[in-house]
């Protein structure tokens, strides 16, 4: 007779196997969509060749699951240094003796066979690395994160379109301009989500004054007003560092935009189309977001403000896993998982709104916050410092919420992303916030 504990372990094994397969299918789709020459080519000096990402996800799977969790002999110890992201800067990776595409795929298949064998046998003990299948979940999330990186590389490649997906849904509701978030305490982070990564932990109380946040991300239409008003030419709106970067980089519009008669066009994965005013703006850096907010008389939200708007339930006072509740995202909740290849228009996902009426907090575009990337109070690096701790400090700004290219496995209300403030090849947008006035906050 199967015990409840055994049934739970078998359900966990099935879930892990399904998530591993889902991530690998996406990896295959991204790397089989182009020929070997495209896989080996570096499409931008700030991105790896796709073939490097391909073998890297297999190498991480081997290091953590085959060798560490399983205690098995290495499959390819000789390639560890080649696929160590800290030892090999992206700009130098094309010159490395990388595994050619066929060999990389064979390596991934060998590693995955060993992982399936391990999954059939591993006991889910209290050892932190295997409790609740954490190491497997970490690897699923790692592969999905690299899939999003490879998707960003596809956006940068030159050539005929290689990826295809249906258009996002049309707007279903009209969304308000902004929402008041009352003053008070909420729980930020998590101590209970079994696959949450170290920088999401631990849960801790945060008290915030009342503030107002945009009910949706800033749209192309709003951002075009900033451009038309000379926003890129007026240093009043830019920080000193932002203006220096704008000038040096020659920024005049979001990445992948170009003038099209009296309007603008946007290149999406090899296709040009008119900029649609009701879609969230994407491919803007932190400095651009900050300048727009200053021009609009507002500011970027802090990370805590973003998370309270995304998770806090005023009826119960508890923090949910997602804006709509604790259940996993579906196609009705959010634009995630490369289901579409660009952001959905504002109002397309009413089922994903928070109780306060804040929309599209999950999916569509990563949202820049004003906060530098630091650990939560009580942070402890696990299972290695290089996942997040080495990036703490003022050099990186936090992004929240995920994009249309983020998978549901690597996106929840506590998930934290970070990047340099100059980066805009990522699927980044933003929403604005402001302090509440006394007549709004009830003071």
TrEMBL record:
Fe cation binds at residues 56, 142, 146. Its cofactor is Fe(2+). It catalyses: gamma-L-glutamyl-L-cysteine + hercynine + O2 = gamma-L-glutamyl-hercynylcysteine S-oxide + H2O. Keywords: Iron, Metal-binding, Monooxygenase, Oxidoreductase. It is an enzyme of class 1 (oxidoreductase). The keyword Iron applies. Residues 20-150 form the DinB-like domain. Residues 175-434 form the Sulfatase-modifying factor enzyme-like domain. Gamma-L-glutamyl-L-cysteine binds at residues 90-93, 419, 423. Its EC number is 1.14.99.50. The keyword S-adenosyl-L-methionine does not apply. Catalyzes the oxidative sulfurization of hercynine (N-alpha,N-alpha,N-alpha-trimethyl-L-histidine) into hercynyl-gamma-L-glutamyl-L-cysteine sulfoxide, a step in the biosynthesis pathway of ergothioneine. PANTHER family: HERCYNINE OXYGENASE, SULFATASE MODIFYING FACTOR 1, 2. This is Hercynine oxygenase. It comes from Micromonospora carbonacea.
